[in-house]
Design brief:
This protein has 294 residues and is mainly α. The protein is 81% helix and 0% strand. The chain has 12 helices and no strands. It is elongated, with a radius of gyration of 27 Å.
Length: 294
């Protein structure tokens, strides 16, 4: 998804949440000050409690990754259509060299991709160190491992499963916070009711009613924050993690198809089919790009 579209969707979505919830409340005759006045204390209880639980439940690495992943939603994805074309062209050049000159012909390129004239032609791919490491590790297994296709597939699947689990950890951690926020809202409301009960009998009904209403604001805020903001943010982070992992799947499919004996053009067609329609180059477009790389 283009970065500008992602920014717009996040901003518009959150504005709609705020506008519809509070707008409906005002239309029904509610008064904003009834929500604003107790909000500071309720936010301290709810936000502070949720933050403390998040810190206690996760490692510092996961906490930092969650913060970075949240900010990354406002940036462009690591790979777009142009980057995928570069990746497919890089794979094509490597596979064609292997087919013409043998596996050992790419050993120097694999050992030092930064110095490889093939890799240097595709700087956007070369800049993604994790992707390059994954690709070169796979190629090393093909060069020196003499592995069957099913053996190589098992190794690659295990590595990708570990990567996907690690990449999705920040989103899952944030989703647990979203699930907990309504409960912290109830905690804030219960504490408010405890405070109310201490004045029942000595305060007039109007005062008791106002304090009960203030206590219920905690439940409202917890539910709103959990389902209106933090939950959608966690879902967007998980979607971005899937998008960022797609280049690894492309490499896996292309190399496994090669080990199974398919020609480079066919292997790349299998890989191209893995891309989402919005960023997938057409068969003709890719063919013209590959002809230019020959």
């Amino acid at each position: 998804m283009p970065v500008e579209e992602r920014k717009v969707l996040i901003i518009v979505g959150f504005i709609m949440v705020v506008g519809c919830v509070f707008g409906g409340y005002l239309i029904a005759g509610g008064h904003l000050m009834a929500l604003v006045e107790p909000a500071a204390i309720e936010m301290l209880i709810i936000g502070g409690g949720a933050l403390g639980a998040f810190i206690a439940a996760n490692s510092m690495t996961t906490a930092k990754a969650a913060m970075a992943a949240s900010l990354a939603l406002l940036k462009a994805p690591r790979f777009g259509r142009e980057e995928y074309i570069q990746l497919l062209k890089l794979l094509y050049e490597l596979l064609m060299k292997m087919r013409k000159d043998g596996l050992m012909a790419i050993e120097s390129h694999v050992d030092s991709p930064a110095d490889s004239p093939i890799f240097q032609k595709y700087p956007k791919v070369l800049a993604d160190h994790h992707l390059v490491d994954f690709m070169t590790d796979c190629l090393r297994l093909m060069i020196g491992g003499n592995m069957a296709a099913h053996e190589l597939e098992a190794v690659l699947e295990a590595e990708l499963e570990t990567h996907h689990h690690e990449a999705a950890a920040p989103a899952h951690a944030l989703q647990k916070v979203a699930d907990a926020l309504p409960a912290f809202g109830i905690v804030a409301a219960v504490l408010g009711i405890v405070k109310v009960m201490s004045v029942v009998g000595s305060a007039p009904p109007s005062v008791v009613g106002a304090k009960v209403a203030a206590a219920l604001v905690g439940t409202f805020l917890g539910i709103l924050l959990g389902y209106g903001f933090v939950g959608p943010l966690a879902a967007a982070m998980e979607q971005r993690a899937h998008e960022d992992a797609k280049p690894l799947d492309i490499v896996k499919i292309a190399l496994l198809s090669t080990v199974r004996g398919y020609a480079p053009q066919v292997a790349l067609e299998f890989a191209r089919k893995q891309l989402l329609s919005g960023i997938r180059p057409s068969f003709a477009d890719l063919e013209s790009e590959l002809k230019a790389a020959r």
